[in-house]
Structures are given as structure tokens and as C-alpha cells.
Write a structure and sequence with these properties.
341 residues, UDP N-Acetylglucosamine Acyltransferase, domain 1, 12-stranded mixed beta sheet, 40 strands, 16% helix, flat, UDP_GlcNAc_AcTrfase_non-rep
């Protein structure tokens, strides 16, 4: 799929300097660009590469002034990085704009779907499920009974959405992700065995939620597991039953949130973080990677360590931890000295 410089300038509302008819069909880093590729310059330290790049088109900020001759066509915009991201989104939409129903696929006769939907081969749509407009269900995906998908939802290949789940508008479920699997609910009996507790609730994803590849979100035991609007989950994350995550919170890969934990709005949670169940984390909390959270966290705190401390306390403690062998030696020497006296 090729785009000309004039087409790209139109999409980005940018100013064109160079050949309006030159076309590109691939993307490249500015230092690795070749003929037929599109790149961008946003970080000043990469400026020398604009004079040597072989990319056909380069997106730059409006205040860029060339000090030497250029072989690349320029598109000047207010923010080169933001415009390049916008172009990537546009390209992704064009590339994935599939419609129609492929064979073989199964759609229950009681299921409904809106306009411009795509249902890929070997996918399954269960009883009484409702799919909105512009929904994309890629091959080998599963949508269970009584599921509601809003407009512009994408379920990539191998994604699974189990029964009674409610998915808002503009949500993305990446490959291998599972929404609505049973929560980890077992109760010990008198013989020391564990009996399964039926998980009768569901999962609710509000609008604009992204669920990364291989991530699992368990259905509630009772009620709902809820991800509020704008939540973004990375790959390989575990969200347990009855968890609630506030608006626009982001969680990085390999993190786990245990049952009934409540996480506030606009939090940033690093990779491999573990959060115990039945605690409350406030709004605008920052949790550093590999931290272990075993207590309630107030809004605005920055946390690190396992068990986690406030960020400042952790750094102060770590200074002493690094010096611990020296401190022990000094204590031993003092004890010997006191013993001699």
C-alpha cells in the first residue's frame, strides 16, 4: 500500500517541501531509511541523520531549518512525533479495515451484529451475543453466550471473550487474551480438599480499554470485575475476580492483581508488580517494577520494593543496604574493642 507525499501532508495537515508525488510503502528509522520509506525527526540528537537518510519522506517539526542540502522530501508539522503516531494509527486502520464473514465460522442464529463487521474464519459467536458496528473478530477468536461488544471493538486472532462479558466501544483484545475466565475460587473442606466455588459474575470493560496479548481477566464470583474507561493492560497480566481498575490506569507486563483489589484512576504500575487482594490503591499512584504491594496505598504515592516502601524511603534504605557488609564489619570491630576493654 503506497502513499504519496501530498496524501500524507493532507492527512497530517502539514506543509510540504519537496516532491509531492514521491511515494512510500514502508516505515524506517531515520538512520536506516531507504528509498520508498517514510521516517520522522523528533529528537534533536538524530538531526545529523536527516542529511544522510535515504528515506523518501521525512516528517519534521515546523521550526526545522536545513543547514545542508537534503535528498528527502519534508513534511513540516507542529509535532513530528505525534504526527508520526497519528499516521501509524491511520495506516493501521486502513490495513485492518476488513469486512464480511469468512467461512468456515459459526454465528448462532440468536446473535446479532451491526454494520461493517468482520468475522474471520474459524471464529465462534455464541447465543444472544450482540456485536456493534465496525466490530472486527479475527480468525480463531471466541465470543461466548450473552456477550455484548460495543462499536469498533477488535478481537484479534485467538482472543477469547467468555459468556456475559460486556465490552465497551473502541476496545482492543489482543491475540491470546482471555476475558471472563473463571476466578480462582476454591474452599477447603473437612478432608483438606478444595472444592470449587462457582464463579457466577462477569467482566465489564468500559470504553477505550486495551487488553494485551496473553493477558487474563477473571470473571467475578458475584457481581463484576470492572476495568474503567481508558485502562491499558500490557501482555501477560493476571487480573483476578472482582478487581476494579480506575480510569486511564496503565499496567505493564507480567503484573498480577489478586481478587477484590481496588485500583484508582491514572495509576502507573510497572512490570512484574504483585498486588495482594482486598486492598485499595488510590489515584495517581506510581508503582515501580517488581514491587510487592501488601497494604493500602494513598493517592499520589510513589512506591518501590518488596514489601513496598515509599520511593524516597526505599532509596534511603537501599543506600544503607549496599553498605551493609561494611556496617557489619564496623559493628564487629566495635564489639571486639569493647570486649578487650
Amino acid at each position: 500500500m503506497k502513499f504519496t507525499a501530498s496524501q500524507i501532508a493532507g492527512i497530517l495537515e502539514g506543509d510540504l517541501e519537496g516532491n509531492p508525488d514521491i511515494a512510500v510503502d514502508k516505515l524506517a528509522k531515520i538512520e536506516e531509511g531507504e528509498h520508498g520509506s517514510l521516517t520522522f525527526l523528533a529528537n534533536p540528537k538524530y538531526t545529523p541523520y536527516i542529511y544522510t537518510t535515504k528515506s523518501s519522506i521525512t516528517i519534521v517539526n515546523r521550526d526545522f531549518v536545513a543547514e545542508h542540502n537534503l535528498s528527502t522530501t519534508l513534511i513540516k508539522v507542529d509535532d513530528a512525533y505525534e504526527s508520526f503516531s497519528k499516521l501509524l494509527s491511520y495506516y493501521d486502520q486502513v490495513k485492518s479495515n476488513k469486512t464480511g464473514i469468512e467461512d468456515p465460522s459459526f454465528i448462532d442464529k440468536t446473535a446479532t451484529y451491526g454494520e461493517n463487521c468482520y468475522i474471520g474464519a474459524f471464529s465462534y459467536i455464541g447465543e444472544n451475543s450482540k456485536l456493534g458496528n465496525n466490530v472486527k473478530i479475527y480468525p480463531n477468536a471466541f465470543v461466548g453466550d450473552n456477550v455484548i461488544l460495543g462499536d469498533n471493538v477488535i478481537v484479534f486472532a485467538g482472543g477469547k471473550i467468555h459468556s456475559d462479558s460486556i465490552i465497551g466501544n473502541n476496545c482492543v483484545i489482543h491475540s491470546g487474551a482471555i476475558v471472563g475466565s473463571d476466578g480462582f475460587g476454591f474452599a477447603p473442606n473437612a478432608n483438606g480438599e478444595f472444592n470449587k466455588i462457582p464463579q457466577t459474575g462477569n467482566v465489564i470493560l468500559e470504553d477505550n480499554v486495551d487488553v494485551g496479548a496473553g493477558t487474563t481477566i477473571d470473571r467475578a464470583t458475584l457481581g463484576s470485575t470492572i476495568l474503567r474507561k481508558g485502562v491499558k493492560l500490557d501482555n501477560q497480566i493476571q487480573i483476578a475476580h472482582n478487581v476494579e481498575i480506575g480510569e486511564h490506569t496503565v499496567i505493564a507486563a507480567q503484573s498480577g492483581v489478586a481478587g477484590s483489589a481496588k485500583i484508582g484512576k491514572h495509576c502507573m504500575i510497572g512490570g512484574q508488580v504483585g498486588i495482594v487482594g482486598h486492598i485499595t490503591i488510590g489515584d495517581n499512584v506510581r508503582i515501580q517494577a517488581q514491587s510487592g504491594i501488601g497494604r493500602n496505598i494513598k493517592s499520589g504515592e510513589i512506591i518501590q520494593g518488596s514489601p513496598a516502601l515509599t520511593y524516597g524511603d526505599y532509596n534511603k534504605s537501599y543506600v544503607h543496604f549496599k553498605n551493609l557488609p561494611k556496617i557489619i564489619n564496623r559493628i564487629n570491630e566495635l564489639e571486639k574493642k569493647i570486649g578487650r576493654e
